[in-house]
Design goal:
This protein is an alpha+beta fold. 27% of the residues lie in helices and 17% in strands. The protein has a single domain (4-336), classed as DD-peptidase/beta-lactamase superfamily (Beta-lactamase, 3-Layer(aba) Sandwich), CATH 3.40.710.10. The radius of gyration is 19 Å and the shape is globular.
Length: 340
């Protein structure tokens, strides 16, 4: 990570918040990291990789299963396809790029709808695609949209999501603790489930499955790359317009104001919305992505700040208000910054 370190006490209350959250979910290890004004100002790790007595301690190179945080990387791959002209417009219908998909349910569904969870599609147990609501008129978090996006990326660019990220980001910026894994190794942190079994793995390493693992420092740097719009220490390493496209508001104008707002799968803070996952104190123009393992990365351009928290829990137990907790995470960051 090409970030200078200057640890301060400014974000101690955020550390307390993350520790308290870790006690409220079924996890064995956690971490928190904040980059503020181009300095790493907090970096803490605690716990172990699993419940095993000999489990490895959580440390700098521990890679957590990031679950739906992977969508921010898929969003980058789609932005890459748009920026380089492989996809002409995100308002093009999905069927233009997936001609083999003949389901009538896909009609009038655009790439914009897939990116902003406003597509209205569902997938049944037998793989049939059905419609839940008209595209662009509501919001629902369904993985079918992400699955279609990964297919569009491959069909249009001739590359997988993983190939694009490896070529454009991971290798040139040396994010060596980020990737999709088909097999476990000792750097990977187990996901703790109620049954004490770890998360079932996928063999595909193409970036199309939920088997992505990232270290805390790599995830913070991923947020930092977006914060700086690809310019790191005076060098434009990733195209600014591509990153701007991925993190700017793309939600259709027809959806209700209180529904979540999205860029290229990132959650974007625009107007106040009752169902947003981003805290009330977090300013307009910020964006966040989070996963079912309670992992989250929050980017606040107005305050030149990236905040990351990592857990290895499988969801939240009954009685733990997940949305309230993640909103409070962002609000606590803002209080550390002297706001609220």
């Amino acid at each position: 990570m090409n970030i200078d370190k200057k640890i301060t006490n400014q974000f101690n209350s955020l550390l307390t918040h993350v520790r308290n959250s870790s006690n409220n979910v079924n996890c064995t290890g956690s971490s928190v990291m904040v980059i503020h004004k181009n300095k790493m100002v907090i970096e803490k790790y605690w716990g172990k990789h699993s419940k095993a007595p000999t489990a490895r301690l959580i440390q700098e190179d521990s890679q957590f299963h990031v679950a739906s945080v992977r969508k921010s990387y898929i969003g980058f791959a789609v932005a890459y396809a748009v920026h380089h002209g492989f996809v002409k417009s995100i308002d093009d219908e999905v069927t233009k790029y997936l001609p083999m998909k003949t389901s009538e349910s896909l009609q009038y569904t655009s790439i914009r709808h897939l990116l902003t969870h406003t597509h209205g599609l569902m997938e049944t147990a037998n793989g049939t695609i059905v419609r839940e609501f008209l595209s662009g008129e509501n919001w629902a978090y369904r993985n079918i949209g992400v699955n279609l996006l990964t297919q569009i990326v491959k069909n249009t660019t001739g590359k997988t999501v993983a190939q694009i990220l490896n070529e454009q980001v991971f290798h040139p910026l040396e994010l060596n603790e980020t990737g999709w894994h088909g097999e476990y190794n000792d750097k990977l942190v187990e996901v703790i489930r109620d049954s004490d079994r770890h998360w079932s793995s996928h063999k595909s390493e193409d970036g199309d499955k939920m088997n992505m693992y990232v270290s805390t420092r790599d995830l913070a740097y991923w947020g930092y790359i977006h914060l700086k719009q690809g310019e790191i220490k005076g060098k434009q390493l990733i195209d600014k317009e591509l990153l701007r496209l991925a993190t700017s508001l793309q939600s259709p104008k027809l959806i209700h104001d209180d529904l979540p707002q999205n860029g290229f799968l990132w959650f974007v803070k625009d107007l106040p919305a009752k169902k947003t996952e981003i805290g009330a104190l977090v300013p307009q123009g910020s964006y966040q992505i989070l996963g079912y393992t309670n992992v989250a990365v929050l980017v606040i351009p107005k305050y030149d700040t990236v905040a990351v928290r990592m857990f290895n829990s499988f969801g939240s137990p009954p009685g733990n208000d997940y949305l309230a907790d993640i909103r409070s995470f962002g609000d606590t960051v803002m209080k550390c910054l002297g706001e609220g």
